[in-house]
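Human: Respectfully, please carefully check these tokens:
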Amino acid sequence: MKIQENVPISEITTMRIGGNARYLIDVFAKDEIIDAFKFIDENKLKFFFLGEGANSIGKDEGFSGVILRNRLQGVETLDEKERIIRGFGGEIWDNVVKFTTDLGWSGIEAMSAIPGTLGAAPVQNIGAYGQDISQVIVEVEAFDTKTREFVTIPKKKMEMGYRKTLFNFGEDAGRYFIISVTLKLKNGHLNPPFYTSLQRFVEEHEISDFSPANIREMVMKIRESKLPNPKTTASAGSFFKNIYLSNSEADEAEARGIQVFRSNGENTINTGWLIEQAGLKGKEFFGFRVSDKASLILINESARSFSDLLKAETEISRIVKEKFGFELEMEPVKIEA
């Protein structure tokens, strides 16, 4: 366990804004979680869990408690016949994807190159191109900060919806420090038609090999061409959540000329499409620029404050609502009590 004091949140999150965290504790082993919470309890401190900081944003006043950063790493096969793997919460998500596609297993290949850790994946129920973590997750092992015990939580108790789960929504939000995640993959591969950008790539390159490894390669190329690398460009990935509609709402939206993607009983509007159609692609707001390649991405060009981010979010949301009537919702999590 490593304890640091007065650490700038701007240096441990990819949007690169935010004041100081009073303490930052890096947890490298399961037993260190107990030690970390002894420190927290003895000093009566608040706490916040962090992975790679790709989906968390610091506020100007900083954080007066402890940021616990998950550094438990590794991934292994538990049952080759059933295609079950387990990875630790601090393992880089894309390493886990590569592990499964190297085995030829399907289930998370379309989520290649999503920044962040495995432990963060079930918290946000991450997803891309028609796949999400809820489709493959079996259970997680976690530290329950309420009972101060290690627990196993099966999928059926995770309450997984679009970017909302037991771990980030409601009274149990922020309660569980995820130690490991167990996933069950499958044989076979995805089949077209795919989501728009992936389908376009397939058609343009006349690709017929949809093996997990090849889907991974395609997705990585698409993301590289469209999305900024958070290691070199300040952003927090997709800044606004996509919009989910009922069938009647989807019909009404399409009647107004709005692009709706329908798949597996779900109706989705790509919020990036709304932002682009509103004429905001490449525009700058209070030091933040809407990416000219992927309009869901907000890039920090020169801003240094969370208040500037709120101003940018408010202005972009206002313009989109006036044009299309939809409310936008920020996807990254604020680091706050």
User: Anything to note?
Assistant: The first strand starts at residue 2 and ends at 8. The mean pLDDT is 94.
